[in-house]
# Entry
Amino acid sequence: MRIAFVSPHSDPLAEPGEPDSGGQCVYERRLAATFGEARSDEVRVYTRGWGGKESRRTISAEAEALRIEAHGDEFIRKEDMAPVLPAFLESMWRRDGDWLDSAEVFHGHYWDGGAAALMASLRTGRPLVFTSHSLGREKRDRVPEDGTLKYALRIANEHRVMAAADRIIALTEMEKGILERRYHVDPEKVAVVPAGVDTDAYRPTGDTAALRGKLGLEADERLVFTTGRLDPRKGYDLFLDAIPEATRRLRERGLKARFLLPAGGDALDENERAVRERMDARIAEQGLEDRVILFPHLTLEELLVYYTAADLFVLPSPYEPFGLVAVEAMACGTPVLATRNGGPPEIIDAGSDGALMDPADAGEFGTVMADMLTDRGRLAAMGENARRKAREVFDWRAVAASIREVYGQALASAPT
# Structure
């Protein structure tokens, strides 16, 4: 099967720390790679080129990324992508028209990819499959409009894409319910398929004792880790607000912890700088300099060591559609404390492999964090459960097989 992924803002081969890199990029790369490795499918991922990146790169045996020229070589935020889409589509066809004309399925990712994939579907008559990765109506409820997020445009186009799609992939049952309730989508055309993790790569690994020594941790000191791009929607400020309560409760029990948060890449854009400045201000205001460590960009090898060395991974987003980093941490044998808003309740079995909290409630957040960190034996048992679940439920090979079934359903029901 020839499968075209359409993803203007999200480069599947983006380097960590680049603008708009993150879980969606990983999802597209690993899904495309898994299809390609099976050699029964051919996948091309169409994304916008910028910053002088290579125009074509291999992802796996039968999967590659094509970076399409549209509106210059400067980075364009996903919120500003709408005017670029017609030129993006025309550039796709000028560059790769013969292959696109023979594609069997167009799979749009996020609303901008969905809109461009819809145009491609209309052009060819081939089925449209859509994965939102995040929903504007839900995001707006938790992260209000600040003049730059352009929710009205996003939500209007989400409705258009969902109405036209032959099949929609939701990452969780909760997302499926939101699609029906808030976007009026027929539940019969929604398939629930979780995101995945490469359990061959993400596993307990590395010299964790050396890392803990490098960070200056004492023998019994707890280590709490979070990672992701610098984005106001990731909840780092909420995490920092919870640390004083967690630290106070741990101190009462004769325990200490350090907290690792991302510092961002070498060249921060305006939005990333604003997030970093707010983080620095909170650290100073709350006197957390001796408890919080901001780490720079990590290689995959370093990331795996951090996941493994941590006693606890935290996902503090006020709303998280799925939470791929949580599944990565679980695959490395680390229990997860995550927001209860969005997809994490379907990933985490509270009390077995992690816990859930309201990240906006600093008292609850800090209390749950301290309670988890108190008993290292319980944390170790939860980590084993987390790793087992990652292997059994979230391995990419199982995810790809389920999504291929969705493509087959879309093809079978397509008009002829």
Summary: The first strand starts at residue 2 and ends at 6. The first helix runs from residue 23 to 38. The chain has 15 helices and 14 strands.
